[in-house]
User: Fold these one by one.
Assistant:
Number 1:
Amino acid sequence: MSGARARSLRQVRWHGHLGAVNAPAPLAAWLGADGSLTARLIAHSAAFRVQRLRQGSALCLPDETGAIGLARPVQVLEREVLLRCDGVAVVFAHTVVPLSDSATDWPLFGGLGERSLGSTLFYDPLVRRGPLEFARLRAGHPLARRASAALGDRLPLLPCPPMSLCPPVYYARRCLYRRHQGSLLVTEVFLPPVLTLLPAPLDTNVK
């Protein structure tokens, strides 16, 4: 694979409008849902679990730098988890926080363990939530590859439209949160098994 091709797989364009990623209707209902994703997953499973994969310092991804106010990829605090419904991984979640942010900005981040970050964010009155952004991640994107590694196998491939030459893609959304002077970027990659869950109706009052 050429260097340019490899770089194109590792980066992605994020859009402020859900329609720009042309997600299938069942996935679009999950991607565009307002409120807490954790609450929606709990409502659609008998047993919900946050499986922490890693938390510590890491190099920020190139397509995250501008979103959290960095001039170039540098070390950040990173948290990655799988959200499981009835034992099945349905979402891979990736969070980054600049190292310059203090414990006062995000007092609970370091000790979350396998608790839900989403629940913490939505119930903290000091947290300001930015608009959602959406993207299509090809299988070569770092977050798709990390999700695959976490599952111990390759991610199941999503079919392309008939007669299409496009590569399989995974749909993701991200949101920037602010608290005091700190910023925190959460990216959620929706895995194919999420389509086995019945999406809840869109309700902007769900928290």
Number 2:
Amino acid sequence: MRKNRRRIFLAGDSTVQAYQKDSNQGGWGEFLTHFLPEEIQVLNHAIGGRSSKTFVEEGRLQMLLEEMNENDYLLIQMGHNDSTKSKPERYTEPYTTYKTYLSKYIEGAQEVNAIPILITPVARLHIENGQFLNDFPDYCLAMKQLAEEKKVKLIDLMDKSLSYYRSIGYEQSFQLFMASINETDYTHFTKKGAKEMAKLVAEALEELELEVFEVMK
């Protein structure tokens, strides 16, 4: 069975990457396997501080694609660092360069007969007037447009994470973020928060009715 394991590759930023076990911080990619069938292997290539642009320009996407085989999956969550105008080496404009770079992930995966899945940026903990806010609305919309244009599947993790925060309230949501430890970081997750986000992603994968889940039932 191990020889026939299906593989999920992750391309993402610090909200996805794996951290040391003794670190308080976590990324949802390090816990995704907890919520998937054991026959599925997760290869987490996410790394902090990268945008859709820098992940490509540093050669990380190419390295990842060289590992991929037919029927593997590539999950792509980019957006947090793309929005940083103060760092032009990272920045992409939502409706032009962001879509252009994301297209490289999609086309690269398809060239090796793998299956790309776009994932909107996971939500930060940002609340105003009692409402949890989407800090990346243009990037989310641009990604949805691209998914439609390229006819690829999409997980709206922004919507799912915001819905989850609303369901448990601000105080419990606060415990999911590093701000509960250092009082400043409302972007990155504690291990607990990362696990909850991983669960949302796994549930979304099942909702997409991917062939890999049908085979393993």
Number 3:
Amino acid sequence: MNKNILVINGNPKSESFCKVLASHYIKSSEQGNDVRLISINSLEFDPNLNFGYSGEYALEADLIYFQQSVAWAEHVVFIFPVWWGGMPAKLKGLIDRIFLPDFAFKYKSNNPMPEKLLKNKSADIILTMDAIPFYHRWIQGDPVYRQLKRSTLRFCGFNKVSATYIGSIINSSEKQRDNWVKQVARLAKKV
């Protein structure tokens, strides 16, 4: 079945292993699907919510396109490095600026639980790291996946969110990187 797939390269560096993984994910999933790539390193926007969610913010052109792409997508793929147990600041700022009330969720009077406006979407989260995945998941408690899955995507209506852990990048061989590329390609073919 044809799907709309949005692949987000969340590494702010222009050249990275995340870029390689995003490229292979796209190549493996584009047959029979419509696929878009957004690389945050090329986006220009203010990542700060200077007035929280109580202020009105005009979205920059890149953010309008990103928001339209999220609305268009049935499946969203986040590929980014884990830095200090979390996502890169620019990616976090992008999420803060895009997943807004009346787009991603909506509160109704006298109800503390929001209406989820991004229903029937799924996501893959592909995390690269210099730590070993076991340490990140079981010693550190998997903070970035828990935050993105539970506090953002599920909160807004995504119904299926999975994670793939890739590391340790810093000490990896070319053969190991090739294996990770193949792993991501297999993941893309399952969509």
